[in-house]
Amino acid sequence: MTHCLTARVVPCRLNYYLIGCALVAALGGLLFGFDTAVIAGTTGWLKEHYGLSDGTLGFTVASALIGTMLGSLAVGKPADAFGRRIILMVMAAFYLFSALGCALAPNWWVFLLSRFLGGVAVGGASVAAPMYIAEISPARLRGRLVGMMQFNVILGILLAYLSNWSINHFFGAALGDQQYRWMFGVQALPSVLFLGLLFFTPQSPRWLVAKRRLEEAGAVLGRCGTDTGSVEEEIREIQASLDLEHHSLREPFFRKKYLRPIFLAMIIAAFNQLSGINAVLYYTPDIFKMAGAGVESALLQSVSVGVVMLVTTALAMVVIDHIGRRKLMIVGSLGYIVGLAGTAWAFYTGGNGTLLLVSLLIFVAAHGFGQGAVIWVYLSEIFPNRVRARGQALGSFTLWTTNAAISWTFPMIAASAGWMAFVFYLVCMTLQLGWVLRVMPETRGVSLEQIQKELGIE
To answer: CB burial class (10 A; 0-12, 13-18, 19+) of residue 69?
Structure first.
């Protein structure tokens, strides 16, 4: 039985300061997308340059995901201690070091370490960026503003595909087998921009209230907007949700009263990756090459995948605060089922290139409009203020752990019977549709403090 949370909509004027702060934080998503997808165009060169087998190639791709798992799990308590913005600054520095390390790596071990560091940055940013945006955003705008994170993730993926194709097309002859270094090194530029812009953003007002810095919190809320129409009333509601007289920011997380949001976060995060989306994104050129495409054609078709996902994510951002999270998930689940069925059939019947391209485009469109647009918004909403950092960390850790397992095993499965992998993802997405219809509550237009009350958390 699905329960819809009660929305209290208070008029809120969109302002450039709020949008600017959200965009800066969402740059963590752009780097997140670029870092995770850039390796898709380099796997052939990495395999040849470092003499990798299918298994070690899978581990090389998954090395960043191991860092992502640890990064997402480790940032929860530091985000509570030092603030979300400081964590984003540290992650920006990690992105920079990773880009330079991968570009200049003298051997496979240095490359692995650099990819691991980039993974830590992705994991940390996947927790801190959407949480920060959610905590500065009024409820009426929260879906669209947190959705900037996913939009930028997809934009980063598309930029990675475009960058890889451009380097191969325009400079491939001059760079030869060293072009993969430039593909990784490009990321240093947006990393520096991200780090610099973070100095001009404020701390999260809800974190400031938790630290009893009420005057600073009021100043931020005054500039970003409130759900109640009154800064003083908003601060009182935040204080009530924290209830620091009876609770501590260090209180145990795995408690009975938090089981419902924990369950919701872990299930939606696991389903996100059991769709197979990152197996497709990490290995897009390889999948098209399996269907007979050449290197440049495969890289160019990868760009089309990124464009479709960017457009559908943008469409989802327009409607997410109007039609809600559940409806997007339902539409996305149905699209997953159609796209995965077609992809599995294309592989099973011998790699029909046209059917494969159309099916993958349906698949990524479904992701962009459904799970992709919803996941970071939902994880940032369903936990109370006093445990949000740890809850977001748990959801991200679940997502990245599942991601690592899927991405590590995909090359080995695809080498023998690729259709089996897509049939497995198809079954998982059928189960997701049932979960959304029967279990997932709607959070559209509800303040973070009211969501806590509606989920029965004192």
So the answer is: buried
Residue 5 has pLDDT above 60, yes or no: no
Coil, helix or strand at residue 4: strand
Q: Give 395-398 contacts, CB < 8 A, sequence gap 24+.
A: 395/265, 395/266, 395/268, 395/269, 396/72, 396/73, 396/123, 396/126, 396/127, 396/269, 397/69, 397/72, 397/73, 397/123, 398/265, 398/266, 398/269, 398/270
How many whole angstroms separate alpha carbon 72 and alpha carbon 130? 12
> CA 265 to CA 281: how far, in whole Å?
23
**Strand-pair partners of 442:** 4
74 Cβ neighbours under 8 A, 6+ residues apart = 120, 123, 124, 393
User: How many Å apart are CA 238 and CA 204, to the nearest integer?
Assistant: 12
379 within 8 A of 440, measured Cβ to Cβ: no
What would the mean pLDDT of 52-56 be, rounded to a whole number? 79
pLDDT in tens, 353-402: 778 888 888 999 999 999 988 998 999 888 887 888 889 899 999 998 89
Per-residue confidence (pLDDT) for residue 168, from 0 to 100:
83
DSSP 442: B
Q: Contact 76/389 with Cβ under 8 angstroms?
A: yes
pLDDT at 51: 84
- Tokens 């409130």 belong to residue: 226
Mention every residue, 6+ apart, whose C-beta is less than 8 A from residue 349.
Answer: none
Beta bridge partners of 4: 442
Confirm if 353 and 291 have CB atoms less than 8 A apart: yes
Task: Give dist(CA 164, CA 301) in Å, integer.
Answer: 12
Q: CA-to-CA distance for 334 and 65, rounded, in angstroms?
A: 28
- Residue 354 burial (CB < 10 Å; 0-12/13-18/19+)? exposed
254-293: pLDDT as tens digits? 888 889 999 999 999 999 999 998 788 766 666 666 655 5
Amino acid at 149: M
**Distance from C-alpha of 311 to C-alpha of 154, rounded to nearest angstrom:** 9
| pLDDT computed for residue 351 by the predictor | 61
Compute the average pLDDT of residues 295-303: 62
This prediction's pTM: 0.78
Please, what are the domains in the chain? 16-454 (1.20.1250.20)
- Cβ of 100: how many Cβ atoms within 10 Å? 16
Average pLDDT, the chain: 85
